[in-house]
């Protein structure tokens, strides 16, 4: 794989990427309260490659949702890339998601009616960046990821590996300080899974992007600087 394009800017230096203290997320189901995340303490410095492990229901996806500002904590403290997520308004959380974190999902979540290029451009345009600047950067990212001949294709015309690489380009379009990935290789064959994991590791090493991956796979273990095993919403010891 070639070097990442210059369009990927370095993150701010000297920043503690993630700080969680007594982080708790409780859901109410009928008359029952369920602790999906139960008092987690966590410190992640800039540029770490964090792998979240655990059985289904252990809290991996909930923790990622909290880190991404997609869900709100019930109690505790959470700071991500210098942004306090304890009490942010909806507008502030939207701004955080657009500019600070990039998300990669198992299901790709590409819009089926848009082309590859349009899917990648969309977050940049929603963030208020200029059309021509966003389009040029999207093309550069897609060329780097080996998708230069797929710009006008729709997701239904891509393989699983191509869809996930498109999703990674989309996650990077706004130069996020942190990349969060929820089972990013879950729908891929072994060859494409290794390619995607190596790509995320390359971003982490070359540009000190903090990467947090929730996965059942062992492919990420070789790149991990920190492995957290969750059980019943807690960090297992």
Explain what this protein looks like in three dimensions:
The protein is of the alpha/beta class. The protein has one domain: 3-Layer(aba) Sandwich (Rossmann fold), CATH 3.40.50. It has helices spanning 60-67, 90-99, 116-126, 131-144, 160-172, 190-207; strands at residues 16-29, 32-45, 49-53, 75-80, 83-84, 101-105, 178-182, 210-214, 226-231, 234-235. The strands form 2 sheets. A 6-stranded mixed sheet has the order 6-7-8-3-9-10, sandwiched between helices. A 4-stranded antiparallel sheet has the order 2-1-4-5. Helix 3 crosses helix 4 and helix 3 runs parallel beside helix 5. It starts with 15 loop residues before the first strand and ends with a strand.
Q: Strand percentage, roughly?
A: 25-35%
The CATH topology corresponds to Rossmann fold
Number of helices: 6
Structural class: alpha/beta
Low-confidence stretches: none
Number of E-type strands: 10
* Name of the top-level CATH class: Alpha Beta
CATH architecture tag: 3-Layer(aba) Sandwich
Query: What's the shape?
Result: globular
- Give the rounded overall mean pLDDT: 92
Rg from alpha-carbon coordinates: 17 Å
Summarize the structure.
The protein has helices spanning 60-67, 90-99, 116-126, 131-144, 160-172, 190-207; strands at 16-29, 32-45, 49-53, 75-80, 83-84, 101-105, 178-182, 210-214, 226-231, 234-235. By secondary structure, the protein is of the alpha/beta class. The protein has one domain (47-70, 90-235): Rossmann fold (3-Layer(aba) Sandwich), CATH 3.40.50.
